[in-house]
Amino acid sequence: MKINNLKLQNFRNYEKLNLEFNDTLNIIYGNNGVGKTNLVEAIYALSLTKSFRTSNDKNLIRSGEVSTKIEGDVIKNTTNNYQVIINKEGKKVKIDNDIISKVSDYITNIKIVLLEPEEQMIFKSSPQNRRKKLNIEISQLQKDYIIYLNSYNKTLKQRNFYLREAYINSNTSRDYLDILTHKLIQYGKKIYEYREDFINKINEYINEKYHEIFEIGDLKVKYISDYKDKSEDDIFKYYNKNYDREVVMGKTLSGVHHDDYIFLLDNKDIAEWGSNGQQKNAIFAFKLAEIEIIKNTTNDYPILILDDLFSALDNKKIKNIVKLLNKDIQTFITTTELERLDKKILKNAKTFNVLDGEVKESIYE
Ligand SMILES: Nc1ncnc2c1ncn2[C@@H]1O[C@H](COP(=O)(O)OP(=O)(O)O)[C@@H](O)[C@H]1O
Ligand SMILES: [Mg+2]
């Protein structure tokens, strides 16, 4: 999968921009604050309809403007035109000029794997943020996943509402609660299965990838879920047993909305025990494993974005790491330090020199 070009209108600090990409390596370089991350953020948003660094779409609109448009042609088996348009009223997405109303029909098309400096924060972050990342990764691959997630969240809201009602009024119908509980378990089980399958697949590759970065130790990801190894019956009984407590608390106390995952290096939680470098490389190994999963599932490589390469990766290992990049994967690297990249790697790469809202393209020789 390759993105041929990118057209921006009033996106972040770009008023108008038109870029043609190389189908192997693209290097975006320039000083701090000139708009390098904005460029890869646009590619990411073209794929997933949202940014990785703001949850408010309106921040993507250039200051003083009322709307933004991101557009690009992407080759898979066929070449298609994708558009994401954001204005004050909301967001519209189009493929070949047709409006796509279901988000799951859009975001499963352009596969992106992103590595950025903030990624390492997942070790310090909340389970909610970790689930968010996992959800995005799985949503790109499985159309149904996002539908189950939405159904689960809707049922969860209804169930929580019921529990709060039951606290005030002891005559509320238990039959209705049971229906909601069964629905919750049914959707939750599906989500559980997708997550477990994804993490199992990550574990097929992650250790080998970690060793390719020349790190020693045994790395794996452990999935933690209330639904783990439980039948629907077991889970239902468990909810029943906790009913009184749930009514007092006014919320559903277990389920896949509490799921989490941790990285284990030699069976120790890397968030607690790992060095900075080990953590960075573990995340990169995860991303490399994700690339393999996408390749195996779709028979095509995703687009790879390495934002702020030298801070996203462990400095000592950077030479080995860049060598791992496969020529078949279209890659975008942003950096302030072009000269730190190996000349051999740069050969034939396309470079984009960003100077505050303007971009100069050339081929490195
Ligand atoms: N909505 C926006 N409108 C105009 N400028 C913006 C907007 N959002 C961010 N910027 C500007 O973009 C620049 C940051 O771009 P960024 O891509 O993060 O830089 P870097 O090159 O360091 O990666 C800042 O100068 C910031 O003021
Ligand atoms: Mg940046």
Structure overview:
With 365 residues, the protein is an alpha/beta fold. The protein has 2 domains: 1-111 and 300-365, Rossmann fold, CATH 3.40.50.300; 126-299, Glutathione S-transferase Yfyf (Class Pi), Chain A, domain 2. Helix content is 43%, strand content 24%. The chain has 12 helices and 15 strands. A 6-stranded antiparallel sheet has the order 2-1-4-5-6-7, covered by helices on one side. Strands 8-12-13-3-14-15 form a 6-stranded mixed sheet, with helices on both faces. The chain has a 3-stranded antiparallel sheet with strand order 9-10-11. A hairpin with a 2-residue loop joins strand 14 (350-355) and strand 15. Helix 4 (143-168) packs across helix 5 and helix 5 (174-212) crosses helix 6. The radius of gyration is 22 Å and the shape is globular. The mean pLDDT is 94. Bound molecules: adenosine-5'-diphosphate and magnesium ion.
Please provide a brief summary of the model:
The protein has 365 residues and is of the alpha/beta class.
Distance between the termini: 25 Å
The CATH architecture of the largest domain is 3-Layer(aba) Sandwich
Q: Reading side by side through the largest sheet, how are the strands ordered?
A: 2-1-4-5-6-7
In the predicted model, the low-confidence regions spanning at least 5 consecutive residues are none
Fold-level CATH name of the largest domain: Rossmann fold
CATH first level of the largest domain: which class?
Alpha Beta
- Radius of gyration over C-alpha positions, nearest whole angstrom: 22 Å
The shape is globular
Which structural class is indicated by helix and strand composition? Answer: alpha/beta
- The portion of residues forming beta strands comes to 15-25%
Mean pLDDT: 94
CATH superfamily of the largest domain: P-loop containing nucleotide triphosphate hydrolases
Number of strands: 15
Q: Give a quick account of the main beta sheet: strands, pairing sense, barrel closure.
A: 6 strands, antiparallel
Supply the number of helical segments: 12
Which small-molecule species are bound to the chains here? adenosine-5'-diphosphate, magnesium ion
Percentage of residues assigned to helices: 40-55%
Q: What sequence of helices (H) and strands (E) makes up the elements?
A: EEEHEEEEHEHHHEHHEEHHEHHEHEE
